[in-house]
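dude i think i finally got it to work??
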Amino acid sequence: MDAPAALDARIRAAGLEPARMPRHVAIIMDGNGRWARARERERAYGHERGADTVKLVTEESVRLGLERLTLFAFSSENWKRPQREIDALLGLLEHYLAAQLPTMQEHGVRLSTIGRLAQLPVRTRTQVEDAVAATAANRTMDLCLALSYGGRDEIVDACRAMARAIRAGELDPETIDQTTVDAHLYAPGAPDVDLLIRTAGEERVSNFLLWQAHYAEYVFADPYWPDFTVADYHAALLAYQRRERRFGKI
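look at this
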């Protein structure tokens, strides 16, 4: 089989319809701490096991031909957590990038980030930037990590950028439209979110991709993130495919 036929066969084997696959899936990976607490372990243990699920879902996204996968890895609100947990999360991010870089290269995954990366510790930020640079030429799938990210922060930063352009005489405020705003977001030109998944039974978006997910389909899955399986992922994708997306039309 040629490559397109092989991809279609993999998608159909998962019980899905190739013509109805989303381009961009975003995931709020919730429940790591509660998963660990239920096992009388430290929250950091839940984050470690959650990293295994990140690998699983990323690899399955590549297999199914997704164009972009965005993972809410560290929110702007996460800075309010105890320093011990913050250090554990950032250390896990560094370990994940080092361990998974060869796999990303093998599968052609291009790493990108959104968020206020300047707030990250220098060591973490350097490792993230190095991984982004190392995978910049890859084209199979974009894996975007939202780091020190908040949806409202992103919109505020876009407004500031447009205000600076207006002050410099580079932008006429009367010409600002949705395309202009999109061009000043953290990832200009990225496709809008088609499907947003949140695990652990929570049913809110928690300041994630507020602009990009304006017409996304939402799936709230019950399993904690460390228990989220390929079958759960397929079920979320199937739920997406069963919905009629009218975008305001009849």
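The CA atoms of residues 97 and 128 lie 7 Å apart.
im so relieved honestly
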